[in-house]
């Protein structure tokens, strides 16, 4: 039985990805593009050379962290759609420290990342408190908090940190995660040390959830609030804590952009989309640390590969968005996979 | 600038920006009253905007003139309902998580709309339309002193249709057997099932109607405000409509009021810098006001907002 469950756990994401790519191919065929040419270009755009690999890994770092944020909250039974907003405040906090603080790199970088985490935690804790105190559903509040974050961070940049080009000043070199070494070995991609931060975060998430009392309590609340309450677990505290920790991951995802990829923060007309992609990543990765890393590799790869697909096969990059949406649908509808598996199993036994 | 001039500047602008929100929020009422969370309103509205822009463009090419926007509204409603059927299939029949399905719908709509725009027009946006909904004075009513100038002159027909629809939706939901059935399915599906109401059917209707209305909202946005479709045409209006629906306590007339109020906030944030005593208020407060108010409303600080009881839970026959 255990074995069977594990099989389904791997099968659902795998089948979903294949189905998503298949339907994506059909859409291309109908729209008069060559799906084979496109998918070959997509694949080459992911791992076809050191430059592409560097770009894919760079794209992975914020996605891993955003995915961890969503997955962590999911484990406590909370749906954090607010990763996007927590990411924005984290981005701003990290850039603020990067611009205005003077310190040697060994202190400056951790300090900037810490600031991002704290900002994200505070932003995430608000919906947590509202849920714990007033029973307000976190899905709605986190969506609203996203917009509040978007407009507020823009306004703060405009008022206090504006530099030419609708953005903040560039951060000091001591706060930068950029790495000439990594760039050199990847044929001058924009790869930076952020991936190390992201992987450490994945290990920390796994450790908190599976090796600490706190993690046990958080998961217990996720399984059954009433039973947890009865067992003496403080459910309200755990809800707030879970949202705050989730916010830490999301905030640090923002610092990947602020300290790594861009080295500044722009006035954003719209959301970055990383937070929403995090939902897809967490879902595909079944809310486990290792799954999130793999999911981020897939979706990060698809996003980067899409650029090559557009320039070589002429297929708009948005096709990848469609494929990702389809994959989420299929994973969400795993009910049908379970049902099919049951049918097949029964058929085999009878 | 007199007080009257200020009102004459803001109120028509508020009504204009509110119309797409009203339609979409009404769609949200249908879906959520039947017990299905619809985070996908944003995507549905976005795809409605795309459909509207494309339909108006081709109708213009065919020489249909001022009928083009109205044809596009019908098209956007049909396409919106079709797109929503994916959400219905996933969340009602296949019992997927409704929030996740809605998120996926948003991804799908955004990706597909831009993909098709690039495919059809070889550019990131659709051509700007010339046949917009035209502004007009309403005969007789616009002659009423004071309010005539504020509410009935120089306004889009779609705004009045939106208000009319809100009243119709209220009537349908609260005064007809169909409305009672739809609401009962969202409050207590098992009891409804016992009384012979087909729960999945009612929920399908609710979700498809939400798609039609959100699609309409998107098309109205294109025909009255933006004039074409780009990747930045619909950025958050769908979520704002969702907020309006919640702030309006899942009630059609409440949603109407909330959408008008949010429209007012938007109008002030756009033209506030011309208005004497408002120019000192930083724009950002007006921009975030709808969202902050919605959170406060949910927290019970601005009147209690209670969701339909069975909202978000798939119905499984025979499950206790």
Automatic annotation (TrEMBL), chain A:
<keyword id="KW-0762">Sugar transport</keyword>
<feature type="transmembrane region" description="Helical">
    <location>
        <begin position="319"/>
        <end position="341"/>
    </location>
</feature>
<feature type="transmembrane region" description="Helical">
    <location>
        <begin position="36"/>
        <end position="54"/>
    </location>
</feature>
<feature type="transmembrane region" description="Helical">
    <location>
        <begin position="103"/>
        <end position="126"/>
    </location>
</feature>
<keyword id="KW-0472">Membrane</keyword>
<keyword id="KW-0812">Transmembrane</keyword>
<protein>
    <submittedName>
        <fullName>Simple sugar transport system permease protein</fullName>
    </submittedName>
</protein>
<dbReference type="InterPro" id="IPR001851">
    <property type="entry name" value="ABC_transp_permease"/>
</dbReference>
<feature type="transmembrane region" description="Helical">
    <location>
        <begin position="239"/>
        <end position="262"/>
    </location>
</feature>
<feature type="transmembrane region" description="Helical">
    <location>
        <begin position="12"/>
        <end position="30"/>
    </location>
</feature>
<feature type="transmembrane region" description="Helical">
    <location>
        <begin position="191"/>
        <end position="209"/>
    </location>
</feature>
<keyword id="KW-1133">Transmembrane helix</keyword>
<dbReference type="Pfam" id="PF02653">
    <property type="entry name" value="BPD_transp_2"/>
</dbReference>
<keyword id="KW-1003">Cell membrane</keyword>
<feature type="transmembrane region" description="Helical">
    <location>
        <begin position="274"/>
        <end position="299"/>
    </location>
</feature>
<keyword id="KW-0813">Transport</keyword>
<feature type="transmembrane region" description="Helical">
    <location>
        <begin position="63"/>
        <end position="83"/>
    </location>
</feature>
From TrEMBL, chain B:
<keyword id="KW-1003">Cell membrane</keyword>
<feature type="transmembrane region" description="Helical">
    <location>
        <begin position="155"/>
        <end position="174"/>
    </location>
</feature>
<keyword id="KW-0813">Transport</keyword>
<protein>
    <submittedName>
        <fullName>Simple sugar transport system permease protein</fullName>
    </submittedName>
</protein>
<keyword id="KW-0762">Sugar transport</keyword>
<keyword id="KW-1133">Transmembrane helix</keyword>
<feature type="transmembrane region" description="Helical">
    <location>
        <begin position="204"/>
        <end position="223"/>
    </location>
</feature>
<feature type="transmembrane region" description="Helical">
    <location>
        <begin position="6"/>
        <end position="29"/>
    </location>
</feature>
<keyword id="KW-0472">Membrane</keyword>
<feature type="transmembrane region" description="Helical">
    <location>
        <begin position="99"/>
        <end position="117"/>
    </location>
</feature>
<feature type="transmembrane region" description="Helical">
    <location>
        <begin position="36"/>
        <end position="58"/>
    </location>
</feature>
<dbReference type="InterPro" id="IPR001851">
    <property type="entry name" value="ABC_transp_permease"/>
</dbReference>
<feature type="transmembrane region" description="Helical">
    <location>
        <begin position="70"/>
        <end position="92"/>
    </location>
</feature>
<feature type="transmembrane region" description="Helical">
    <location>
        <begin position="284"/>
        <end position="302"/>
    </location>
</feature>
<keyword id="KW-0812">Transmembrane</keyword>
<dbReference type="Pfam" id="PF02653">
    <property type="entry name" value="BPD_transp_2"/>
</dbReference>
């Amino acid at each position: 039985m255990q074995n069977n469950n594990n099989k389904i756990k791997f099968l659902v994401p795998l089948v979903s990805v294949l189905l998503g790519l298949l339907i994506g191919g059909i859409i291309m065929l109908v729209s008069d593009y060559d799906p084979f040419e496109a998918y070959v270009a997509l694949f080459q755009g992911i791992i076809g050379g050191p430059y592409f690999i560097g770009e894919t890994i760079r794209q992975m770092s914020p996605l891993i962290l955003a995915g961890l944020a969503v997955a962590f909250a999911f484990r406590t039974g909370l749906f954090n759609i607010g990763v996007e907003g927590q990411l924005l405040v984290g981005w701003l906090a990290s850039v603020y420290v990067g611009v205005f603080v003077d310190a040697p790199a060994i202190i400056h970088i951790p300090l900037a990342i810490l600031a991002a985490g704290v900002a994200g935690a505070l932003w995430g804790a608000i919906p947590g408190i509202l849920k714990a105190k007033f029973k307000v559903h976190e899905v709605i509040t986190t969506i609203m908090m996203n917009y509040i974050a978007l407009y507020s961070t823009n306004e703060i940049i405009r008022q206090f940190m504006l530099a030419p080009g609708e953005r903040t000043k560039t951060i000091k070199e001591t706060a930068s995660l950029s790495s000439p070494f990594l760039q050199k070995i990847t044929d001058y991609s924009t790869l930076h040390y952020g991936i190390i931060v992201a992987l450490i975060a994945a290990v920390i998430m796994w450790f908190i959830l599976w090796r600490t009392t706190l993690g046990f309590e958080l998961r217990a609340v996720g399984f059954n609030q009433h039973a947890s309450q009865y067992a003496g677990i403080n459910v309200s505290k755990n809800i707030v804590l879970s949202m705050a920790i989730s916010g830490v991951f999301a905030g640090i995802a923002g610092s990947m952009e602020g300290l790594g990829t861009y080295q500044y923060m722009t006035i954003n007309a719209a959301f970055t989309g990383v937070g929403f992609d995090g939902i897809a990543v967490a879902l595909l990765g079944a809310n486990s640390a290792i799954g999130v890393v793999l999911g981020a590799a897939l979706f990060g790869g698809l996003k980067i590969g899409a650029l090559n697909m557009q320039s070589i096969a002429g297929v708009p990059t948005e096709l990848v968005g469609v494929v990702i949406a389809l994959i989420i649908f299929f994973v969400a509808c795993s009910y049908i996979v379970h049902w099919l598996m049951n049918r097949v199993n029964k058929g085999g036994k009878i | 600038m007199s007080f009257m001039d200020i009102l004459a500047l803001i109120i028509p602008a508020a009504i204009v920006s509110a119309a797409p929100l009203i339609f979409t929020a009404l769609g949200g009422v249908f879906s959520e009253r039947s017990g299905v969370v619809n985070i996908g309103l944003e995507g549905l509205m976005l795809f409605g905007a795309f459909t509207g822009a494309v339909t108006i463009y081709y109708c213009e090419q065919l020489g249909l003139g001022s009928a083009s926007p109205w044809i596009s509204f019908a098209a956007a409603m049909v396409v919106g309902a079709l797109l929503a059927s994916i959400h219905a299939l996933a969340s009602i029949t296949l019992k997927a998580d409704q929030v996740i399905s809605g998120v996926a719908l948003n991804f799908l709509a955004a990706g597909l709309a831009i993909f098709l725009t690039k495919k059809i027009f070889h550019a990131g946006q659709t051509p700007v339309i010339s046949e917009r909904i035209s502004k007009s004075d309403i005969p007789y009513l616009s002659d009423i002193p004071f309010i005539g100038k504020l509410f009935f002159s120089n306004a889009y027909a779609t705004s009045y249709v939106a208000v009319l629809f809100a009243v119709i939706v209220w009537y349908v939901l609260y005064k007809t057997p169909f409305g009672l059935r739809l609401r009962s399915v969202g409050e207590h599906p098992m009891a409804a099932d016992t009384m012979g109401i087909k729960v999945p059917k009612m929920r399908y209707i609710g979700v498809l109607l939400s798609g039609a209305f959100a699609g309409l909202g998107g098309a109205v946005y294109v025909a009255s405000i933006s004039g074409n479709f780009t990747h930045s045409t619909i950025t958050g209006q769908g979520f704002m409509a969702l907020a309006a629906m919640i702030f309006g306590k899942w009630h059609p007339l409440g949603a109407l009021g909330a959408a008008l109020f949010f429209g007012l906030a938007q109008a002030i944030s756009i033209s506030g810098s011309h208005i004497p005593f408002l120019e000192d208020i930083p724009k950002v407060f007006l921009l975030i006001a709808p969202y902050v108010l919605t959170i406060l409303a949910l927290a019970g600080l601005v009147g209690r907002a209670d969701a339909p009881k069975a909202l978000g839970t798939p119905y499984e026959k025979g499950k206790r």
